[in-house]
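Worked Example 4.2. Read the sequence first, then its structure tokens.
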Amino acid sequence: MAFVISVVNQKGGVGKTTTSVNVAAYLAKAGHKVLLIDLDPQGNASTSLAVDVYDNEARSVYNLLVENLRAVDVIFPSNQENLFVIPSNINLSGASIELVNLPDREFRLSQKLKNVESNFDYIIIDCPPSLGLLTINALVASRYVLIPVQAEYYALEGLGQLVQTIDLVKSYLKEDLHILGAVLTMYDKRNRLSREIRYDLERNFPHRVMETIIPRNVRLSEAPSYSQTIADYDSESPGARAYSWLASEIVSTLTNHPAPEPIAENNKEELRVDVSVDDMPEDSSEEENQV
């Protein structure tokens, strides 16, 4: 049975899609059979794997959720061995409205995946930047949640709300849902604010912050424009090495600790970074930094 992981954060621009695509790619390169589900109407994960998201006649996750297509009908091979994709397209933009009146609206994705889960080792779900019905479907279909957190000012705001949403889903819809961890993205070790955010995150989520840190790296931004993962675009870049390590850390964590301990109640409050803008150093002109 597959390990099903949702990559979730209601904030946009924190690296959800970059994390989903590249973790899936490195898991596939390690020999695991991986399914990537693009549940974001923007379809960036799909375009990263050379899928045309503007073809509204193509079968996609929209047809899976709203119509009666089976999962096997919307799974396609990607441009990488062992990596398969259920793509998004422009039709998904209205799916949240259409799902409202459908029976078992929160369970649509979970029900459709039951017949294919045994065919994969890992299923990675790239979620939209919201906590609406699409994200709820992803959480109900998952066993684990990975939370990318951007190492920038205000990035931690809303994280308490996300944890509360996960708790509600766990209480009422998916009892065996666990937070796999938070992963820091776009991290600049030269920047004091990045270091403060890392400290604050580790303080509020003890034993829940992934050891791997994803650096701010221009190659990660460039790779999707060539419809490539970072593993194929520049495997020697700091971003590539970081995602390779993150994939290995995820495998190790799930193999050795398949059911993480719950977060303590007193750590679920809204997170804030107590750092003044005046404390921030000027950024170096160096384009990239090592992990």
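Now turn to a second chain, presented in exactly the same format:
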Amino acid sequence: MKKMKALVKALPERGIWMQEMPVPEPGLNDVIVKVKKSAICGTDLHIYKWDEWSKKTIKTPMIIGHEYMGYVENMGAGVTNLKEGDRVTGEGHLACGHCRNCRRGKEHVCENSVGIGVHIDGSFAEYVKIPASNIVLLDHRIPDDWAAIMDPFGNATHTALSFPLLGEDVLVTGAGLIGSMAVAIAKYAGARFIVASDLSDFRLEIAKKMGATLTLNPSKGEKIADAVRKLGMRGFDVGLEMSGSPKAFIEMIDNMYNGSSISLLGLLPSNFEIPWNEIIFKAITLKGIYGREMWETWYKMEQMIIGGINLDPVITHRLHIDEFQKGFDIMEEGNCGKVILNWD
């Protein structure tokens, strides 16, 4: 049996381990991708730290990771739309194809969804097995590093483009990787003013490079209401909540215009008391965001990249896969954008 290098959550405790694992064999409709670049996701960091969510969700041992790009190495006999050597990435959520949501074109909210690198072996490996239906062929104009972060770029795209942005004033709370990419998407989509808030000046600098009109650090006493006054607005038309912070969400609601809309990607505490009356009296629309819309989000991502959106500012570290521990240390420290791991 052929072996490969892989990052494995081998034990139910803090850490991640490089191990030798069997190279996966394709089923009838599967594709084996030779991975060239991987990216560390916030989900991977949760698994690395072995927090409460990980303890409930992850079964060890398992290869983790779901952000990657590479080349088709091998495939099952049923795969007819791809060929060996194709440059690809993949959608990380495997939909069942036959539940009610799948049948009505809402695969991203499939009731039987399975996550690569969360429920089954993932892409932190020399080779990963993916159903052919989840493979995305990459346009030659998409750089390898950007292709490796199409997954989180998809989260940002789904969040930002859930409501019309042309001429609108947009507030982004949480300027991490996805929040900063959402800033660039809002700018690309024609937003008027884009304000980003975060507790990290490092991340706010990235948000500025991605096109934020104004950035705020609440830990320094900077308030969203001050931005509203400074820019001469009556309130924000669209809110993109990426932080998972109750304080940030409440401050967002306080500064939304009547009849505005909010996309919620950040995970708020379950015991958080939401100010429902203010939401009702302001007629605010709330939309929960999960993953990417399959496959409309992917088409929009590709066209934005081809059309000139720049993702370079969000990639702050590039390391060899053998330096994976350094990569996770950098992610845990938090003064970073995206960390790319190269398998070459």
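Notes for the reader: The CA atoms of residues 224 and 251 lie 7 Å apart. The mean pLDDT is 96.
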